[in-house]
Design the sequence.
């Protein structure tokens, strides 16, 4: 859960949302819908505020994190700032997670980083979008801290014995992103082209190797 | 939403220092997972000042308290650890949950 | 504050393989997500710590059985009833209305 409190309400308040799912019938979901109606009726927030909030949340995607990675790969000074103080560095690209401390962990030949939140499911939503179901699953949260190499192997990440595996349990006010290794042979690529190579899972650390497929620079990075 | 601006409050621990995480079970909301309680580690870095999770429940989180990242060898957490000796687990712990080791 | 159950504190426990399926976020889940963030923004809850505290007060059975946003919904309701923002009676009345609406429209 990112503590993103920026109240940017410059959205189109008239935008209507078409529910594409039927209303839920579970008792717990009805608790949520009932509470929502009571809070709206009491004026604690408005439908326009709700629409703006949902629109903002739906606008966040791993492409934001990919932009940070591509910038770090092409600009060593930015990379140094990102690793030193992620919270400040990302404001250069218009992102802000404060008061949470945004923390970037760099993979290299000797080190592999992977993120988990065992106590709930903390995740830098503003930079990575909605977290995948497995990130919130009991199994990932239970096992990653105890048998990281086995879990990573299930994700297809094979690590040699001399690679230092660092598991980061996001327990308090830090939010993490992994800086994956730049694929060989892409040194002269543009930032946009590099951005399209970066996957969500590589930003969490459940993917280690990115592939330098020569995609259209304008192609959608997250099909 | 308190959020405690960083002040000049001196950090009690420094990066590289050995610390032990308290083995306490306060029975209220807190953010120290059971599996690290009682374990020793090394301060990986000193973080900022933040409200205490325990004090945010029906409260304002104050006083803002120093947060640290603590690095613990996996082989120490899990006697049957199947990975490599170099593997580590890193976790954020507030100052009031730490003591010198 | 009553004792928490700690059903959330799962690091290191035995568990099966990680299920890799992905699912789209349902509309009511976006509404619950927005409700929690707006409740925080409007000061109805002090911090995400209060949401997490509510989740930790779920019964272990509820914690295991409920989906992610179902936990959020029950936690925020528990918290806002406890803080007197809404009453349990009003919540139950509204739930009956919603159930009736859903029955009529199906």
Sequence:
């Amino acid at each position: 859960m990112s503590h993103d409190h920026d109240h940017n309400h410059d959205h189109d308040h008239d935008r209507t949302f078409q529910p594409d799912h039927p209303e839920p019938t579970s008792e717990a979901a009805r608790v949520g819908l009932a509470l929502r109606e009571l809070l709206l009726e009491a004026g604690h927030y408005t439908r326009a505020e709700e629409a703006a909030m949902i629109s903002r949340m739906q606008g966040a995607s791993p492409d934001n994190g990919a932009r940070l990675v591509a910038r770090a790969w092409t600009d060593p000074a930015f990379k140094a700032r990102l690793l030193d103080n992620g919270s400040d560095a990302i404001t250069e690209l218009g992102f802000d997670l404060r008061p949470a401390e945004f923390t970037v962990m760099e993979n290299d030949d000797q080190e592999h980083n992977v993120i988990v939140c065992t106590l709930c499911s903390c995740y830098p939503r503003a930079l990575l979008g909605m977290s995948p179901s497995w990130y919130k699953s009991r199994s990932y949260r239970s096992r990653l801290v105890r048998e990281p190499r086995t879990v990573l192997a299930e994700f297809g990440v094979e690590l040699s014995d001399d690679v230092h595996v660092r598991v980061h349990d996001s327990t308090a006010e830090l939010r993490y992103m992994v800086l994956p290794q730049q694929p060989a042979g892409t040194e002269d690529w543009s930032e946009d082209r590099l951005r399209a190579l970066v996957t969500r899972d590589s930003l969490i650390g459940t993917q280690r190797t990115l592939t330098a497929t020569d995609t259209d620079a304008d192609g959608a990075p997250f099909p | 939403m308190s959020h405690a601006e960083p002040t000049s409050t001196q950090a009690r621990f420094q990066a590289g220092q050995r610390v032990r995480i308290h083995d306490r079970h306060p029975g209220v909301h807190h953010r120290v997972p059971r599996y690290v309680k009682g374990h020793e580690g090394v301060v990986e870095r000193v973080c900022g000042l933040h409200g205490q999770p325990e004090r945010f429940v029906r409260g304002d989180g104050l006083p803002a308290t120093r947060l640290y990242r603590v690095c613990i060898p996996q082989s120490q957490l899990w006697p049957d650890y199947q990975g490599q000796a170099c593997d580590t687990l890193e976790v954020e712990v507030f100052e009031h949950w730490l003591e010198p080791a | 504050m009553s004792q928490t159950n700690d059903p959330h504190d799962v690091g290191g426990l035995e568990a099966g393989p990680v299920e890799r399926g992905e699912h789209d976020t349902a509309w009511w889940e976006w509404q619950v997500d927005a409700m929690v963030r707006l409740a925080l923004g409007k000061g109805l809850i002090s911090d995400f710590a209060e949401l997490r505290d509510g989740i930790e007060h779920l019964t272990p059975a509820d914690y295991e059985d409920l989906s992610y946003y179902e936990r959020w919904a029950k936690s925020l309701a528990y918290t806002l009833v406890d803080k007197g923002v809404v009453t349990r009676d009003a919540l139950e009345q509204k739930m009956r209305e919603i159930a009736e609406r859903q029955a009529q429209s199906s």
Notes: Helices of chain C lie at 27-41, 48-56, 60-65, 68-82, 88-105. Chain C has a mean pLDDT of 92.
